[in-house]
Amino acid sequence: MMPSGKPTDQMNRRGLLLSVAASGLVAACGGGGGGSSGGGGGGSSSSSSSSSSSASSSSSSSSSSLPDPATAPSLKTQFASHFKIGFAVDPWLTSQSPTHDLLLKHASTITAESVMKANPIGVSAGVYDFTQADALIAFAQANGINVRGHALVWHQTSPSWFFDGDRSDMTAYKALVRSRLETYVTDVVTHFKGKVYCWDVVNEVTSDDASATYRNSDWYQIFGSDFIDYAFRAARAADPSVKLFINEYSTEDAAKRGRLMTIVQGMLDRGVPVDGVGHQMHINTGYPSAAQVEAALSDVEAKGLINHVTEMDVSIYNDSGSCYSGTGCLPALTPGTAAFNTAMTTQAQKYRELFNVFTAHTSVQAVTMWGVADNHTWLDNYPVARKNYPLLFDAAGGPKAAFWAIVDPGFTP
Description:
two-stranded antiparallel sheet, 35% helix, 14 helices
């Protein structure tokens, strides 16, 4: 999330992403593509504690006057004429309550939080572990749900074996690393050919620093921007019909988006097969404005590309930038209090205003939430350990004010 609209705050969030939620498998915000959930989207995700899961449907939705949950429409049906509705999830959650039933009712697309990234898939050069990713695909296919592939190349989850080798001869070294990258992309995209409808090919390659255009990742240090071209061209060769995306956070920030659009225009000029831009949309109740999101979508449309919202969540905490350095974070809100109820109302208003923007743009073909319900969100542990409530459904799976705000124009949050 980016408090006060400052890109540096978002940069700090993404830089700390994996250390926050590392627990065996790397989850994304980033993902976020990120993550993983930088970013991530994308964006690391973590299960909330048992205590945080105890919030009742009524209390975490903040209002006893919400409509009867039994009358809640299916989101995938509600928005079918506009775009796919999706959720980030990993396979071990798909059988759990309330995730399972919510996905079956509402999801037209899902994104793997962690299990389709190079870590854990890429065990070593030419050696792959598709076990968990295949399990998620199997769940999706069994229930008629589309899958977004996320993410082929992300600096946070690129295993070290990609970069192993003797750098005394940089020409030979670069050829070796390029071969590993192209082989990995080819093999993974081929494995999932016909099972995913799009890929986030590269995730978070834009610099947060105004003095540079590209993130100074290991990939960039070795190849400059060429690694982006290698990845996209290998993906297109492996699956000519899959849609290929560049995924990024803070696209609503005009300065960072300008750098991203410079990258995208360069790709188009070189004939790189990019189909669209993913907007992670890790935001809060105070930022960004509808106008800022409108501008982000319009800039992509001007390039003739598709827009996807890839990792959306709306934090109820409008922390100052210092929180992302460990100080000045707002205290946790308690369900049932006036402050919490106000936050739920403000969150609902934010979801409504942005969904109104999304539905007004035919270029928006998918909107994905980074999580399913408030019982499982990476924001419980970022930027501090503090229960958050950023999604459309409460911890028990009940539709929140935010849900009703996007499906019923007559609902007053």
